[in-house]
Amino acid sequence: MSKTVPVGVSARHIHLTQEHIEALFGEGYQLTEFKPLSQPGQFAANETVAVIGSKGQFDKVRILGPARKASQVEISRTDSFAIGVKAPVRESGNIEGTPGAKIKGPKGEVELEQGVIVAARHIHFHTSDAEKWGIADQQMLKVRVGGERGVVFENVIARVSDSFALDMHIDTDEGNAAGVKTGDTAEIID
């Protein structure tokens, strides 16, 4: 049985706490939905912010909602060089000891002490998909993408939950290197 998964190429984005949303956009502010994402209940917000590092900044970085318990910026390795933030490869949510950045919104600024990462490549599995394919949460997988620049991605983390929908997430550097775009498919080979 082929273990085919859809691919989502994730551009730089930010997750914010409600406290930081209000500091950047005003007291009581609520994010508004631009479009739904592949994971149930998650959305790209209409709102954007500037992310500022020691060497530069990115304007109009999309906020993903809903609000989170910790603020986190996800950038590519190329982005990391461009703004002068040595972001480590980490699984989402694992921000302890990571560098920070300044975040600027229309009503204020926030200095993140930590939270800038290059997201580790991963696949979201609904529990039923993982069980069907014999895949365990946190298992490291090898995944092949075909095409003219086909590659095998190693160290792809399996993330399993009843609240997830099947989707592989890679960043723009990885997508560009492999000639892959959102909506393409990949095959788990190990």
UniProtKB/TrEMBL annotation:
Signal peptide: none
Record Pfam families: PTAC
Coiled-coil zones: none
InterPro entries: PTAC (IPR008300)
Top EC group: transferase
Keywords: Acyltransferase, Metal-binding, Transferase, Zinc
Catalysed conversion reaction: propanoyl-CoA + phosphate = propanoyl phosphate + CoA
Protein's job: Involved in 1,2-propanediol (1,2-PD) degradation by catalyzing the conversion of propanoyl-CoA to propanoyl-phosphate.
NCBIfam families, per the entry: PRK15070.1
Name of the protein this chain belongs to: Phosphate propanoyltransferase
Organism: Paenibacillus dokdonensis
